[in-house]
Amino acid sequence: MSENKITIQNGVLQVPNTPVIPFIEGDGTGADIWAASVRVFDAAVEKAYNGKKKIQWKEVLAGEKSFNQTGNWLPTETLDAFREYLVGIKGPLTTPVGGGIRSLNVALRQELDLYACLRPVRWFEGVPSPVKEPNLCDMVIFRENTEDIYAGIEYMAGTPEVAKLLAFLQNEFKVNKIRFPESSSLGIKPVSKEGTERLVRSAIEYALTHKKPSVTIVHKGNIMKFTEGAFKTWGYELAEREFGDKVYTWNQYDQLAKTDKAAADKALADATKEGKLIVKDSIADAFLQQILLRPAEYSVIATLNLNGDYISDALAAIVGGIGIAPGANINYVSGHAIFEATHGTAPKYAGLDKVNPGSVILSGAMMFEYMGWQEAADLIYKGLEASIASKRVTYDFERLMSGATLLKCSEFGSEIIKNM
Ligand SMILES: NC(=O)C1=CN([C@@H]2O[C@H](COP(=O)(O)OP(=O)(O)OC[C@H]3O[C@@H](n4cnc5c(N)ncnc54)[C@H](OP(=O)(O)O)[C@@H]3O)[C@@H](O)[C@H]2O)C=CC1
Ligand SMILES: O=C(O)CCC(=O)C(=O)O
Ligand SMILES: [Mg+2]
Predict the structure, then answer these.
(1) According to the model, what pLDDT value does residue 1 have?
(2) Distance between terminal CA atoms of the chain?
(3) Are 361 and 36 within 8 A, CB to CB?
(4) How many angstroms separate the CA atoms of 307 and 305, rounded?
(5) CB within 8 A of 232, min separation 6: which ones?
(6) DSSP secondary structure string, 124-150?
């Protein structure tokens, strides 16, 4: 075993001083963003550890660059590298709409079983926002990352496959509610108890470790009873079974309130006063208006794949847009993790050295925190905060700030380094 590999022993990451970290540059604006980000990462590590620590970057291919060079969108070598080196980082990869290859981003998450998509959402002082009090929005999304309709089990209208599936549903299950069966495409949404439990467990453990007040299970269980609804039920059951006294759930409240509403109110108030973690739930559509109107009531969010995708961009917009929305895809058991921005390839800006590299830079800060390199992460936060405070920012912030100086993507990276 090379001394430059990050490994995991008894659940604890072992990080050498000069770890090899595989990275994917990314499609579209990925090249611009990566060039700016990697300079920030190296500068933060150098400044934090005076040359005692240094990352050995290892480029691995995926997406358009990979296809052009190898004829393969996601080479086995790339998956092998992420498996071998445990921790990696990536830029965005393009997914065509309505046909063509399936998402390489989703494929990476599924192949490495990176079941938790962790996306922290917080406001940085001075960032322009469409809401009056963006500081009230301080949430961490745990999005299930391997199941749901992202499993890609869908069949196109008019194909023999869809005809077979339709016939099966009609003959075996007497399904007669498909409005236009002859022209319907069909998709299947797998949601498992195991998948739910490991995601909700991660969210609760995170909330307890970081002393957060609540975990909200966000679902559309009124309509999709056995997938989204089961996610809620399994989530509550897991919380009560595995975390016992450390949590109080709205399910416990509801059970008690059936016979004694006053006692239930008191139990909830006591649990809150005692600092227990409150595990609650919200139906997804209502949740999306609540995050605008009452964001302070939400903290850690546990949700399924599609809801998590929508919620990520919606919450990012509240705190200033997806230019500064970082994320991580993690398997907390194997230790495998790939860090990446919430945003996509923003193709219209490709090659213009224009977009905000903040999301990938903050994803790198999350990676350093995951590796235990907190000092390097803190320098990145410091550099970013000071750059925003001096109003020297990329186009996305500049167009919403008065008196700001417009910087290119690369210049914003340099600005962060200057302010570390
Ligand atoms: N994990 C991944 O790799 C992801 C990949 N994708 C893929 O990316 C492609 C493009 O998707 P699309 O729906 O256009 O979404 P994008 O997130 O790529 O872009 C949408 C808009 O968000 C803003 N934006 C995005 N990135 C930045 C940035 N770094 N700085 C500032 N603003 C930014 C821009 O807004 P404005 O126009 O207002 O300037 C942009 O037009 C698709 O193929 C999609 O599948 C999408 C999401 C995640
Ligand atoms: O894989 C893609 O192209 C889109 C993924 C996405 O939007 C996300 O993970 O937030
Ligand atoms: Mg998305």
Answers:
(1) 47
(2) 35
(3) yes
(4) 6
(5) 217, 219, 221, 281
(6) -TT---SSS-GGG-EEEEEEE-S-GGG
Residue 226: pLDDT band with limits 50, 70, 90: very high
Please name the residues in contact with 136: beta carbons below 8 A apart, sequence gap of 6 or more: 295, 296
Q: pLDDT class for 139, splitting at 50, 70, 90?
A: very high
What's the rounded Cα separation, in Å, for the pair 282 and 250? 10
CA distance 308 to 328: 13
Beta strands in 55-114 (DSSP E): 56-59, 87-90
**Catalytic annotation, pick one of 27, 309, 353, 396:** 309
328: helix, strand or coil: strand
Q: Beta strands 337-340 and 328-330: pairing type?
A: antiparallel
> Which residues are registered as beta bridge partners of 23?
59, 89
Token pair recorded at residue 419? 């302010």
Residue 139: exposure state from Cβ atoms within 10 A (0-12, 13-18, ≥19): buried
Has 150 been annotated as catalytic?
Answer: yes
Distance 152 CA to ligand 3 centre (A): 16
Residue 13 — φ and ψ, nearest 5°? -70, 135
Residues with CB under 5 A from ligand 3 (ion): 309
Ligand 1 centroid distance, CA of 329 (Å):
18
Does the interface ipTM go beyond 0.95? yes
The pTM of the whole model exceeds 0.90: yes
Q: Residue ranges of the alpha helices (H) in 177-227?
A: 193-209
Q: What share of the chain is helix, strand, coil (3-state, %, to 5)?
A: 50, 15, 35
The H-or-E segment that residue 21 falls in is: strand 20-24
The pLDDT confidence band at residue 2, using thresholds 50, 70 and 90, is: low
Structural domains of the chain, with CATH: 1-121+324-419 (3.40.718.10), 129-147+192-319 (3.40.718.10), 154-187 (no CATH)
3-state DSSP assignment of residue 245: helix
